[in-house]
Fold:
Amino acid sequence: PLAAISGKKKIIMKLGDNINSAILLRNNTPLDDFLGLTPNEINYMLYDTFCDKSPVQIRGNIDNAILNQIPLFRIAEEYLKIIQREKQIKLTPLGALPKKVIVELYDKKFLLDDIIETGITKLSREQDCISILSARLTAEVAGLVKKANGKLSLTKTGTKLILPENRPELFKSFFQAFTDKFQWSFNDLYPEQPIGQLGWAFSLFMLNKFGNEPRLTSFYAEKYLKAFPHFISFFEYDFSAQRQFKHCHGIRTFDRFLLWFGFVTVEKQSAFMDLDTDKYTRTDLVKQLFKFEGERP
Structure:
């Protein structure tokens, strides 16, 4: 009986080793749905994007010439400088930035708004320019700005990182907060799910791979959905689900992330954004700011 039990243990241990080997092989096998990345690499990309095992990493040395080309960061940086200059900013009774601050930031012309530029809407409140609102909220979740008694002021971290010599670290702090903490769904009426935001690095990986020529956002949305098919379930299951998903991914990923950070240029067919016709091309900033160690031919 003891010999029989010992034999069964050996069989079970061997089966366990075989299963573990199969799992290990599977997790380290490049998959077409992931554009040649392995499940392990995708896991790091999704949940530990800034670690040294992630296929997409921010470069260590970033000079001022590069940072000057990042529109949303420039807005955030000037916003911090205004708070530094004023010591404190008193919010409106509704908890928004006062008009004079919004106008000062917008007049820097880092990011222009189509509706404001065409005169359809006048810049009179914070909600009129979502890029400025997003920069402000990201600075707060990044721990750069604090709010107390209806007033905004710099935190110790914000005071330290606003120094010129700490500019690269300020960018990294802001960028990580925007991608990991600020909720992209706040800016639209699509489902409050991390569509586009979860896997933003995968979209950047795709842009690096395919963005050398102008392409519609649907080209990238289709590949993103192939990698993360469960996201389609958050849209009504009918003929328009695919279209809703593609537009959601396009707005969040291209119009309000890649374009805001200067990672793409857009060829517009009209005065306003049209995801069915606008084409996006990768800029040099992508390769200047990021390393793509997971690339394969």
Summary: The first strand starts at residue 56 and ends at 58. DSSP finds 13 helices and eight strands in the chain. The mean pLDDT is 90.
